[in-house]
Amino acid sequence: MAQERGIRISNLCYSVDNRQILAEVSIFVEKGVNRTILGASGAGKTTILKLMLGLLQPCSGEILIDGVSLAGLSEAELIRVRRKLAIVFQGGALFDSMTVGENVGYRLFQDGELSESEIERIVLEKLGFIGLEDTIDYYPSQLSGGMKKRVAIARALASEPDYILFDEPTTGLDPVGVYNICHLMHQLQKEGKTTLMVTHDLATAFAVSEEFSFIHKARLIFDGTRDEMLISRLPAIREFLEPTDSSLFVAPKTPIGKDFHEAKR
Amino acid sequence: MTVQALAGMLKTVFLEVQEYFRLSWSAVRKIFSRPFYYREFAIQMDKLGVGSLFIIILTGTFTGMVMALQFLAQLKPFAATSYVGGMVAVTMIKELGPVLSSLMVAGRVGSAITAELGTMVVTEQVDAMQVEGTDIVKRLVTPRLKAILVSLPLLTVVTDAVSLLGGYAMAAGYGIKPLMYINSLTQFMFFIDYAEGLVKPLIFGFIIAMMGCYTGLNTRGGAAGVGEAAKRTVVLSSVLILIMDFFIAKVFVTIR
Lengths: 265, 256
Prior knowledge:
The structure holds 2 protein chains of 2 kinds.
Chain A: E1 6-16, E2 19-30, E3 35-39, H1 45-52, E4 60-65, E5 68-69, H2 75-82, E6 85-88, H3 100-104, H4 106-111, H5 116-129, H6 145-158, E7 163-167, H7 175-190, E8 194-199, H8 202-208, E9 211-216, E10 219-225, H9 226-230, H10 235-241, H11 256-264
Parallel strand pairs in A: 3-8, 3-9, 6-7, 7-8
Antiparallel strand pairs in A: 1-2, 1-4, 4-5, 9-10
Helix pairs in contact in A: 5-6, 6-7
Chain B: H1 3-29, H2 38-49, H3 53-75, H4 84-122, H5 125-131, H6 136-172, H7 178-188, H8 191-217, H9 222-255
Helix pairs in contact in B: 1-6, 2-6, 3-4, 3-6, 4-6, 4-7, 4-8, 4-9, 6-8, 8-9
């Protein structure tokens, strides 16, 4: 039987302090098919990515990367499986104490299999891909939010992973920054990388993905294409796609300003 | 407080102690395995060791001066001021040197380790390192542990030395000659006393490094969480140092 190519999560459950974060979630990210997991803030989207990477342990359920289950793997085996994956964290998660070049070449330096000049060539190539060759000697604190995310993409690419996971890649960016990230994701997809993004930004999701999953109150309530999602009658999805007045929070009866001034007194 | 709440609290405490020892054991085992992260070790030696030198010199000098001043005032009526060097040495080398330098390092370095690692945790840098295939204990904990285990005994030796110099500065005012001051050291101090003065900072250093790393790596809740974790490191390290000081002193008194 041919080995399954993709990331499969089956009946995944995860809870913290008796609070259910994910309940019976099953998703298949097929290799070559770009998927976005949608859901409101706090729905458990980032947790799914961390579970896929083995950074968190599920309460029950199974995760298979190209047919290999993460359950019961030793740290060394987990590191081997993780080589197929890379992640772009929400804030970039660049290492503060290292330059951009050292960040991008981190895994290559660590592996110690390539010469310094070879690593430098790869780092420059990856920085060229994201259009930031000039920042090789900068520290992360000298970069803007959008630049940090692009450097994080370059770092993710350095190890040539099969799957790239994106955690809210466009949150907090201006329209140009969003466009740049979407453009880079398209480029990656053209190069044969499979992308899995979690976001609540619909425009970005529709721009870069073919398939969608929707998490609501810890459960997967939708799995399908963009068109199927747009015609879905599920209330949670309708509200997400077309927020109405009923989505507004209930305003407090006492004006907030009055409370604030009274508290100060 | 209900029995159930008490049981829950005890369970949390035991779990934390277990995790602390698990991390400590893992860090100790990895001291001798590759890769050694020499660069990280050198950076930590500079930050934790060399960076603490100034505060250690100040602490040692003034404590030595105060101790000498107090001893001289007590010894003068008995015409025994010539013993002041030995008395300062016993107090400083066996007790105050290791304890004071460790408390200073716990305040300065322990909190810094926690804040640094805690910030790395809340900004997902630790997760990113793990994804990149890094062994977190080997990369972040072991170099800090090694740096403190090497630097704290050295810092304690500096504290002891400058405190004896500070003590002599006071003794000179009472007409005590350098040779007399040095001779009194050998009258009061034996090999086991010097050993006690070096074993203590090793154990205290271990407590500081592991408490700093454990609390830092278990930081939760953003900037407020980092501040809370740093405070916890300083308090717990300081209390543990003082408790351990009693037990180590008891052991040395017994084997003397």
